[in-house]
Amino acid sequence: MKFIKKIIIAFFSLILCLTSYLLINSSVSETSAFKTQTVSAETRDQKIEKAIARAEYILNYRWKAVANVTGWGYTFTAGNSYTIPYSQPYNHGGYLFYNISLNYFEQQSKIAGSNVYRHDNVGGGTYYGLDCSAFASFCLGVPQRCTTYTFESWANAGSNGFYYKSYDTVAKGDLLNSNSVGHVLVVGNVNGNYISCYESTPQYRSGRADICYTTYTKAQWKNIGYYVLGYDYRGTGAPYDDVTSERLTTPKKNNHILGDSIETKADTSWNTSKAYSPNNANYSKRQVTLSSSKGDNVLYFNQSKSPTITIQSTFKVTGKETSEEFGKFGLSFVNANGKGFIFYCDAKGSKGTAASTITGTSIGIVGRNGSDWQWGTEVEIENKWKASSTVTLKIERTGGYFKCYANGSLIFTALATDYGLVADEQIYPQIRSFNIHLTATNYSAVATHNSMVIDGNLDDWKNNANWSKIQADKKSVVDKNNSNKNATFYHRLTDEGLFIYAIAHHAKTLSGNDDWWKNTNFEMFINSDDVSAQFYVTENEIEGFTSFSFNTTGTSGNYTTVLEAFIDNDVLTSKASYKGNSLKIGYAFKVDNDTVKDEITPVGATTATSYWCAENSEPRKTAHTVTKETSYSKDYLYNEADRGYWTFNGNDLYIKQCIPTPENDIVFFRNNVSTTHTFKATFSLTGKVSSEEYGKIGIAYIDENGNGFFFYANAEGGKDETTITNITGKDFGLVYSSKGDYLWSDAKSKSLTGATFSADKPFTMKVVRENTKAKLYAGDVLLTTITLADYSISNNRLCYPALLTFNMYAKVTDVGVNVPQQDGIVFDGDLSDWQALKEWDSIQANKITVKDKTNANKGVTFYTLLNEKGLFVSAKATHSVNLTGYSDWWKNTNIEAFIGSSDFNHQFYATKQHRKGWTKSEFTTTGSNGNFVTIFEGFIDYEYLTNVCCMSNNQIKLGLAFKVDNLNGTADKITPEGSTTATSYWCAENVDPLALNITVSKYVAPAEPDPSDSSSSSSSSSSSSSSSSSSSSSSSSSSSSSSSSSSSSSSSSSSSSSSSSSSSSSSSSSSSSSSSSSSSSSSSSSSKPNTSSSLSSGSDSSSSTGEQNDSLSNNNKNNKRGCKSIVNSDMLILLPICLLALIVIAKKSKKD
Known about the structure:
This protein is an alpha+beta fold. It contains 15 helices and 68 strands.
């Protein structure tokens, strides 16, 4: 019996264990599936931030008076803007947020006869307003309007969340309150001994605003009589607080394309009930309608504000406001400051509500400056649309360049700078209507980042040079029972940010739920398991993505959901604490609303789940490492500024005056510098500062932290002399620089022996850097070898060489880094080596020439080559004016390029002194006044083109220009062939480089003829091309200039004369480019905007004839091939006929 009992106990114990195991597993699985979708309660710190946000909003808020009204010792006058008035309207309930909302006040302020313009004779001030305690109550979110007495009483009793604090512990979100003083303030910031506070106080009468921000020391506040009150922030908010609920609430992005942006709400006149998302089966029927008017009726393309974006919409006019005679509608780019433009259909006509009253047929463009449209400056073209038909408008933005289309035809081009915009400025595009009723359909917005078009298509990923790496690093999850159910995640981390492509194949889909996690969704965590680092996308809510495309297609049992998205560095940094090199990420896909679930049993797991986690790792674990693609690491680049009076004259440098002691004059050489290079300079001393008796001049390697060394010629002697006659110094020396201080007594600072110099003769100094060491030479004599780490230059630290002088004047020649080379090209200002390249025929055929129509000796020719090593660009300009020595690069003779994108991150330039972006380069100018020749040679490596410059599918887009203009009266202008306007901005194809009008394709060598194939003929074509993306030319050889009909025998490859250059008609006469990203724009006015005619490519008849003659000549040469050239199809037909005849004859002979 005892044995049976043991058996029973063991049996039930086993059942209990198994049940517990199953319950635990079930619990863990369910928790894992949903634990990422929790919402945390608002913390006290978050509530304080919200209180400060309310205070900040009211501090900056302004209403515009339309009539006069007397306030608290001050008269508000019509036409001027003010903060909310200080007032104490307790007798009739006129306190904002406790009796009325800000929206109501704002509406009433626009009516001259409303109570806003009544004086309160009882409380004092205006009929509506705020006093100090009402303002403080509102900011802190206290449900009832308090007074200074209320705050004090509650703090005395320690009730309602208020309590006393000391000045030692005062913090943001506290109050400074005094019932005896009769005033209370909200603490906005504590900085050491200073406290800054928000307050409502009648200050307009004293020249300040009634809502203001005041800073005093703690002692000053205390001496006035204020006590510090803390608050636990238990309040639920003022009853009429529409600031928090509407004006501080950031709308979430959604997938409906049109609506509110996350920055600004759209006008409510639009009906967006049918703005179906791409996840909806009715997406093809999407539409928004406007049947009543309110102002500009703004509606936002809300998925992205990328500087590279294409927007479009088809419009059907359905009516208008009855009194409107000059209505308009269209697409716009207007920033938060009210600057920008609208590309519009002019819907002018007569009064009435019917669309038939509209007679306008023009399409136009007009700018906006602040709150005012610049009517009177608009440009319009007639007969481009009719109100009785639909019209499709489209704008392609590439950074600072806009192309505007109507019904597929290019109508205008525009520059960002012409309308007060910045090339890389982020703006949510808009639809606007001025009193015209519309239906908008087939609308879309597609953003592009670093050549990746965010459209849900994987093709551009596959065309990227890094595709093999991307594919090898993909993450996935697959159903072990049905491999057709799966999810795959691709990623790419670049200098711009993180790209994501996710695709899921599933059987069920969900939409329409208020909780985002109950809809079909992708989810990820980056660098943290905290909810703040959570990113997700569903039909109605998107969190964290800068740009995205999200859609679900298919039918029940066979759905495909795709997410393509981009997250910029700012978001990665703020949400995920991204440090700039790599990140950790976790992915998941899910369809589960607690009732409907799409489950799989992942390969490698045993439990079914609706939470499809990449590689079976829950996304909060961020198990996958993503490493940034290699690029020029910003850690090794710096912007140490030149200092003093060094000036270039051609290719030489001069120093003729010096900064007073203790400063020194220094000029850096940033071009072609690596951790292995040679830098040399030949010095000819010309004088000195009279008072200097210990002068020095030489080569310095000093970084932005002031660390490094100075290798100098010791030019001491000659006190009270300005000449070099009495200089007695003849030795060379070395001094250590630590954090900007020259440590002359340090053991690493020393005199160098082995060679001397003479002040009256030129002498050469040279530094050979070999990664961790540097060799210092005088002439060809090695003086010493130093370890750079001893001078605080780490082994991999890029450090720019410089010329430095302590009060010595000199001419410096033969100065710079050793001449760089790349694939047979020496960067030396001589283009003859280009002609020796195997690719020369292709380069020559695709050159682009800009010539002065009035002076054939002035112009510039650009050459490009893209091969497996990278992009080569050269230019030869003949010009009459030369400019050097300006600290602003754009004021010097310069070459400028935009490569891959029209923003300042992708702006490349070169002058004699300044360079940006080029891996290797040289810039030389020779000649004399009236007859200068500038030659530029530049190279960008293939990896940088791919990772940074948006190269895709072995093609790169760019724009090129040459310029001489100091923007202060000295400029070298031409009137380019194909243009009618003189300009100093010599743009390739006569198109602003921001347009990226040139496409350069990777060179492919011509196929070699097969000697065994008797029918083969040699090919002379190649696939390398430079073409204008905006060209509409027919017979010309793409947008690049036609190849020359006769080549010059000059040694310079760029001297071959072109019989014509293909010309795109006049682009804007805009002066040079905007400045680099950190400086102001240098563009002067342009003829804005350009009509479509300015983009059509022309073809010179002589050029075409020349090309045809060359072609005929080549054909004649090819025909001199002897017998091989006549084997053709006729022979192939004749041979079998002859053979058949022989057989018949043979048989007949046999029979006979």
